[in-house]
């Protein structure tokens, strides 16, 4: 039995999230005040990241905000047997847009970045719509 493509897209999105986490973490370690001693400690004081490392951190936080909606919608569509072209294309839009989002955010490209975020949310909306369609 092969996995539904939508479930494979959840796996792809997980990989995107892990890569974002690693990229953001590596960039933060390049910040002088985010050294390994601080990272290994209790981190009681909040340190604000700026520049590319700050943007990568915020992009990862944005992923954390959208990913649960994508997973919940995809699992719901799968469980009620409503997968098909709409859920597949919605999942592809979400994952593809999330891949594009990070370098756009890192580069500080605002207008296009917002459009790409919106495309990712359209993808989630497509999956949710499929749940309620015949």
Automatic annotation (TrEMBL):
Residue ranges annotated as transmembrane are: 7-28, 63-81, 88-109, 115-133
List the record's Gene Ontology CC terms alphabetically.
Answer: membrane
Superkingdom field: Bacteria
- Where mainly located? membrane
Q: Does the keyword Membrane apply?
A: yes
What the entry lists under Pfam families is as follows:
MAPEG
**Protein location:** Membrane
Q: PANTHER family attached here?
A: BLR7753 PROTEIN, INNER MEMBRANE PROTEIN
Q: What is this protein called?
A: MAPEG family protein
């Amino acid at each position: 039995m092969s996995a539904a493509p939508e479930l494979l897209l959840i796996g792809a999105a997980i990989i995107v999230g892990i890569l974002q986490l690693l990229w953001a973490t590596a960039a933060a370690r390049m910040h002088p005040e985010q050294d390994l001693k601080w990272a290994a400690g209790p981190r009681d004081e909040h340190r604000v990241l700026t520049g590319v490392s700050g943007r990568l951190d915020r992009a990862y936080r944005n992923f954390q905000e959208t990913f649960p909606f994508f997973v919940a919608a995809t699992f719901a569509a799968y469980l009620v047997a409503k997968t098909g072209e709409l859920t597949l294309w919605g999942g592809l839009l979400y994952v593809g847009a999330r891949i594009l989002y990070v370098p756009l955010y890192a580069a500080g490209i605002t207008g296009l970045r917002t459009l790409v975020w919106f495309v990712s949310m359209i993808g989630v909306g497509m999956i949710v719509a499929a749940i309620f369609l015949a």
